[in-house]
Design brief:
By secondary structure, the protein is mostly helical. It has helices at 2-10, 46-58, 66-74.
Amino acid sequence: MEGARKLLASVRFYPSARADNPSPYPFTDYGDRAVDRTCPRWEDNLESWRVLHAVIDSEPAVEEPRPMLGLLAELGTEAGRSPPTSGRHGC
C-alpha cells in the first residue's frame, strides 16, 4: 500500500507549456478517512437498473461511452437484451 501511495504522490499535472518548470501538484492522502459506500437511495432497487436499461436500449450506439456500456453489459444491461428481472445488481 505504501508503494501505491508514493506512486500517486509522484504524479504531476501541468500544462505542456510549463513542462520545463512545472508547479508542484499537492497530493492529499485521504486513506485514513472513513468513506460512505452506501448505495444512493435512487440506486437501491431494481427499478433504477430497469430505467438505465431502457435508456441504453433506446439510444443509438455512439463511440464515446462504449467502454462504460461494456461494463454495464457485464452486469446484464445492454441494448437488445431483456432487462434484469430479479436480484440486486451493482450494490
